[in-house]
Amino acid sequence: MRKVILGLAVSLDGFIEGPNGEYDWCFTDQDYGMSDFFKRIDSVFMGRKSYELAQSMGDAAMPGFPKLKEYVFSNTLQTVKKDVIVISGNIVEQVNKIRNEPGRDIWLFGGAALTTSMMNLGLVDEIWLAVHPILLGSGKYCFSHLDHRVHLDLVETKPYSTGLVSLTYTVVHNQ
């Protein structure tokens, strides 16, 4: 079965974006493990807002990203670009169907509402955080509104000279 991997940048105080939606604090000066990560995945899950933001930015939104099969979770989105699949309705059933299809792992890219829903439904298998050495003070939290504790097993840590630390955890299901 394919894994769903939540992979994202987070500030040291737990925010995935600043108070005005900004992410200019994210380091882009080196690879930070992205090339190896892209070898593991062939698909991406994203929420409507993340999809619309990526579309508004065009190719500049995700420079260097490989071609991935895109799934957008939305109950309201009417139009998407060619080859994008819209997921609505029973998320558990549809995600499990996709996870059982042949292929590599799946990147849960965001946003916060989709991440919370997928975490609460037990659909995330691994968490890969790029913890940036900055305190934003406010913004959108990485994990808010979880309806239960989520136990994690540390798989890997990798510090970088910039102060960024990459943390990889597996989600412990059935705790």
Could you please describe the fold and organization of this structure?
- The chain has helices at residues 34-40, 48-57, 91-99, 112-120; strands at 4-11, 15-17, 41-47, 69-73, 85-87, 105-110, 126-132, 140-141, 151-159, 165-172.
- It is α/β, with parallel strands linked by helices.
- It has a domain at 4-20 and 30-43 and 92-172: 3-Layer(aba) Sandwich (Dihydrofolate Reductase, subunit A).
- The strands form two sheets. It has an eight-stranded mixed sheet with strand order 5-4-3-6-1-7-10-9.
- Strand 3, helix 2 and strand 4 (69-73) form a beta-alpha-beta unit.
- It is globular.
- The mean pLDDT is 92.
List keywords for this structure.
single chain, 175 residues, alpha/beta, Dihydrofolate Reductase, subunit A, eight-stranded mixed beta sheet, two-stranded antiparallel sheet, 10 strands, 20% helix, globular
Strand order of the largest sheet: 5-4-3-6-1-7-10-9
The first-level CATH class of the domain at 4-20 and 30-43 and 92-172 is given as Alpha Beta
Element string (H = helix, E = strand) = EEHEHEEHEHEEEE
Q: What is the average per-residue confidence, as pLDDT, rounded to a whole number? A: 92
Strand-residue proportion = 25-35%
Given the helix and strand composition, which structural class is it? Answer: alpha/beta
